[in-house]
Design a protein that fits this description.
This protein is an alpha/beta fold. The chain starts with a strand and ends with a helix. The longest helix has 22 residues, at about 190-210. About 30% of the residues are buried. The chain is about 45% helix and about 20% strand. It has helices at about 10-15, 45-50, 60-65, 65-70, 80-95, 110-120, 135, 145-160, 170-180, 190-210, 230-245, 260-265, 270-285, 300-310, 350-360, 360-375, 380-390, 395-405, 430-440, and strands at about 1-10, 25-30, 50-55, 75, 105, 130, 165-170, 185, 215-220, 245-250, 255-260, 290-295, 320-325, 330-335, 340-345, 410-415, 425-430. It folds into four domains: about 1-80, 3-Layer(aba) Sandwich (Rossmann fold); about 80-190, Rossmann fold; about 215-345, Alpha-Beta Plaits (2-Layer Sandwich); about 350-440, Arc Repressor Mutant, subunit A (Orthogonal Bundle), CATH 1.10.10.10. The strands form four sheets. The chain has a seven-stranded mixed beta sheet with strand order 10-11-9-12-13-14-15. It contains 19 helices and 17 strands. Helix 8 (about 145-160) crosses helix 9 (about 170-180) and helix 17 crosses helix 18.
Length: about 450
């Protein structure tokens, strides 16, 4: 039986507990908080007592985001999707007899609201919206998130007579407004969204167990001098093997080869692995090229390790370089510089067909597909795309222009992040592109 720790308010727990029967082989345990920032103090105990962490929403999740990433915790949160938003609005408009223009709303991202309004064919002269989409970009510290800011937003509109009702995604806001006597509704936690979220989390957990048992082959070669037959170096490699519960090849030739599992490699983050290599650099006064290969078989992992080691030569050798090729033949690296995935195989038929249609590099199109999928098709700027694809901004703008010309991207306006600097143009994938390659 799997165990899922629910980190959220008692109100959230009471809202979703009726859905637990949909997962008879899962035990749900509750770690309650009063305000989202308290989730940081709960995560360690919750992770130690469960297989998966379920956060009440994006705010508590992103308070714990860094710890989730560092400790590689299996975690997810209940999103505010179009279904939850539609059900909530329908309930208020129908039962409270309140027009949409008289409702103030806070939610994770305004885009989901506008999508619901557009698809429902609804219109209004203005909407009172306040979102917190910036938390997804991790460009500001979560300590800047102030619940009071959202309480005042709704309170001031209501006091001015501009609104008659509040729809909020934040339980602390809901409680505070009720205490002030302001009519409020907490966003509906739909059964469909809950079941879908938990199902995906369980699938991801099962995959992590499977992938942890995959074979990992680590090839290490010195850049400047041979360490063949250097007994001290071999002893150092043996020490690294003990850390990863691995074994080193008996061959005395370079590259030196370590056999391990993906799970063992995953337990150590890149910074820790880099520190081990740094110790070898100082001890033997040379830099190293390291290629890690992941595979479902030993042969496949060895091939991928050789490929990864080969690609380390594509980077400047003024430091040690580490690249990884995973079980899907994707190159990740250089890991000591940044993390960027590039497919070494162009076997995606939809991507190849589209690349031919619009005369674009299949590699760039594949990276675009990964970028859009990774960000759940949120609006993006040319600078963000350029950073992900490791291109100049001008090159990214050319790619965007080509996709816009072919109705695969849409210019949706300009945004002025945090009221600083020049406004930036933002874009979003069209349904045309999503149906072509994103969903396939």
């Amino acid at each position: 039986m799997k165990t899922i720790a629910v980190i959220g308010s008692l109100f959230f727990w009471d809202n979703i507990k009726e859905y637990f029967k949909e997962f008879p082989k899962v035990q749900f345990i509750h770690f309650p908080y009063t305000v989202p920032e308290e989730s940081v103090g709960l995560i360690d105990e919750a992770a130690s007592k469960s297989d998966i962490l379920l956060f009440a929403g994006s705010i508590p999740y992103y308070y714990c985001y860094k710890k989730i990433q560092v400790q590689k915790i299996q975690a997810t949160y209940i999103p505010v999707d179009e279904l939850s938003l539609s059900l909530s609005l329908l309930s208020i408009i129908h039962s409270q007899k309140i027009e949409l223009a008289n409702i103030s709303i806070d939610l994770p991202n305004k885009d989901s609201f506008y999508q619901v309004i557009t698809e429902a064919g609804l219109q209004a002269d203005h909407f009172f919206l306040k979102d917190y989409a910036w938390v997804y970009e991790q460009q500001r510290e979560m300590k800047e998130f102030q619940i009071e800011e959202y309480i005042h937003f709704h309170k001031n509109l209501y006091a001015a007579g501009k609104t008659k009702h509040v729809l909020t995604c934040l339980h602390a806001v809901f409680v505070a407004l009720n205490q002030l006597g302001i009519p409020s509704t907490y966003m509906v936690d739909s059964k469909h969204t809950f079941v879908s979220t938990i199902s995906k989390a369980i699938d991801a957990y099962k995959y992590s167990l499977l992938s942890s048992s995959q074979i990992a082959v680590v090839s290490i070669a010195s850049q400047e001098k041979s360490l063949v037959n250097n007994l001290l170096f071999l002893e150092s490699i043996e020490k690294i093997c003990k850390i990863f519960n691995a074994r080193v090849s008996q061959s005395q030739s370079e590259p030196f080869v370590i056999y391990a599992t993906r799970g063992a490699i995953r337990k150590s983050n890149i910074a820790y692995f880099q520190s081990l290599i740094g110790q070898l650099e100082k001890q033997f006064e040379t830099f190293f090229n390291i290629g890690i290969g992941i595979g479902y078989s030993l042969h496949e992992a060895e091939i991928h390790s050789s490929q990864a080691l080969f690609f380390t030569n594509k980077f400047k050798n003024q430091t040690s370089v580490l690249c990884l090729v995973d079980e899907e033949s994707r190159l990740l690296g250089s890991l000591f510089e940044n993390e960027r995935k590039i497919s070494l195989l162009n076997n995606d038929k939809q991507v190849l067909a589209l690349a031919e249609e619009i005369k674009m590099s299949a590699k760039n199109l594949k990276l675009m597909k990964q970028f859009i999928g990774m960000n759940n098709n949120r609006p993006f700027s040319a600078a963000e795309l350029a950073e992900y694809m490791n291109l100049s901004r001008r090159s990214a703008e050319r790619i965007i222009s080509r996709l816009i010309d072919n109705n695969y991207l849409l210019f949706i306006g300009e945004e002025h992040p945090y009221n600083q600097g020049r406004p930036r143009k933002v874009y979003k994938a069209t349904i045309h592109l999503i149906s072509k390659i994103i969903e396939n």
